[in-house]
Amino acid sequence: MKPEFENIPLQKNETFKRFEITVDGHLAFINYGEFDRQIALVHTQAAPELKGTGAATAVVEKTLTFIKENGKLLLPYCPYVFAYIKKHPQWKSIVDPAFVGYANL
């Protein structure tokens, strides 16, 4: 994650079911579903003003850290999150082994 995103807090917006960061007044977020021991990440999006800034990567990294710190298992349905984990295999440790694409990570 780029240093400029390190001090931006991650918000868990339970009303809209998304993890969010706000950068210069613009939103980057991941929609989620939460179950007893699992969190499914389904869609990552960043405002057009944040394109190319690294905000989407920052919200992914912060969300994965949240999942790890809270002892949850990840279901990475979002293609962006799935690709991120494939590039950073240290995060595979939080993916639920029952996830249908687990062997492809």
From TrEMBL:
<feature type="domain" description="N-acetyltransferase">
    <location>
        <begin position="11"/>
        <end position="96"/>
    </location>
</feature>
<protein>
    <recommendedName>
        <fullName>N-acetyltransferase domain-containing protein</fullName>
    </recommendedName>
</protein>
<dbReference type="InterPro" id="IPR031165">
    <property type="entry name" value="GNAT_YJDJ"/>
</dbReference>
<dbReference type="InterPro" id="IPR045057">
    <property type="entry name" value="Gcn5-rel_NAT"/>
</dbReference>
<dbReference type="InterPro" id="IPR016181">
    <property type="entry name" value="Acyl_CoA_acyltransferase"/>
</dbReference>
<dbReference type="Pfam" id="PF14542">
    <property type="entry name" value="Acetyltransf_CG"/>
</dbReference>
